[in-house]
Write a structure and sequence with these properties.
alpha/beta; 5-stranded mixed β-sheet; two-stranded antiparallel sheet; flat; membrane; about 55% helix; transmembrane helix; transmembrane; 11 helices; signal; 7 strands
Length: about 350
Amino acid sequence: MASPPHRYLRLLLLLLPLVLLAAAPAGADDLVAELQSLRARSPSGVIHLTDTSVTRFLSAPAPRSYSVLVFFDASALHSKPDLHLPQLRSEFALLAASFNARNPGSGDLFFADIEFAESQHSFHQFGVNSLPHVRLIRSDHSTLAGSEQMDQSHFARLADSMAEFVESRTGLEVGPIIRPPLLSRNQIILLVILFLCSIPFAIKRIIEGETLLHDRRVWMAGALFVYFFSVSGGMYGIIRHTPMFLTDRSDPDKLVFFYQGSGMQLGAEGFAVGFLYTLVGLMIAGVTHLLVKVESLQTQRFAMMAVIAIGWWAVRKVIYLDNWKTGYSIHTFWPSSWR
């Protein structure tokens, strides 16, 4: 019969493997299950990481069984219009929701964000010194600094271009970006009811010829708007999401409305040039349609001199701005017979 000390020793030997197993770090399956649980609790499917969770999930030895796409955010910079951080964060959430809808329960790729105010150490580990910034930590990345940064060009078309980056780097299919409808079901029902109620009144106004479509002033205002919108680069600003102005880096209290360089155009400078174009167009229209009806020859001459002076000033401003922005100069060429 074994003595009590030998019995205790045998019991310790039996319990030792269980103790070592409990003290061992979490396995790959445990980390994936935990990430899936965190993703399920997030309304957008984006996991919020801190310094502690970055060490736990992203500093695990490579190769891992999962990859993580991280969006670096800073709430203090959301007021900077040139960074577009709130919009990019919203598009990142749409990207995550679209991927999760296409790949339900997937453990291959997770989407996460890190806030600068509470995770400055993680920003330092990744080497992030400017925003916007997105990084892909693939399963074979052994260091955080060695992860792949998303190029700025992949922010151009927001979630759609981000999806192209994910698909090209991971081989996973994101699918079409699922965007929420502009109007809710109740709003659509209300609009339909209002439209049906307005049909009798609209028919009455059409028969009497008293609608806005019968007013020449509306058509003139619409034509001016289309002309101004075209020459001011309004569509370019909508497509490129260009800001109206920027904050001067050397003086945060100063605003920059004109950007020198052909690679970018601000909304304010486009509207300024569009105003000059529209001004010249309106003066030419006034001369050809209104001034010719004036009987006083002196008034016609005075008006023509004013139109010529203002037109010369407007064209000179456009040429000056174009030369200042792009370096392109206007050259005059005389007919060879005049030389």
